[in-house]
Amino acid sequence: MRNWIVYILECVDTTYYIGITNNLEKRLKDHQGGKAARYTARRLPVRLCYSMEGYSQSEARKEEIKIKDWRREKKQKLIKGLLIR
Question: Which of 9, 53, 67, 82: disulfide with 5, CB 3.0–4.6 Å?
Fold first, then answer.
């Protein structure tokens, strides 16, 4: 199934957190509640700044890993819609 989502959160310290989920609304609530990831729990509040859906789980994981390796500037271009995926 292709119902997985790749998302980017901006943390209060302006760092980015990249993740995947098949239920973005629930995942965001978990992040805001400090329950989703240790990284974001220490950097609350967070805000959703990018999401792209339509992936299989394995495709989403590969995309997540790829984006995590990018420099901050490239992530910002993706967020601003200046980078076509």
Answer: 53
For the stretch 27-81, pLDDT in tens is 999 999 999 999 999 999 999 999 999 999 999 999 999 999 999 999 999 999 8
Domain spans of the chain, in order of start: 4-80
Residue 49: CB atoms within 10 A of its CB come to 15
Question: For residues 37 and 81, what is the distance between their CA atoms, to the nearest angstrom?
Answer: 26
Q: Which of 16, 21, 10 is nearest to 53 (CA)?
A: 21
* Full-model pTM: 0.93
| Exposed / middle / buried, residue 27 (Cβ in 10 Å: 0-12, 13-18, 19+) | buried
Architecture of domain 4-80: 3-Layer(aba) Sandwich (3.40)
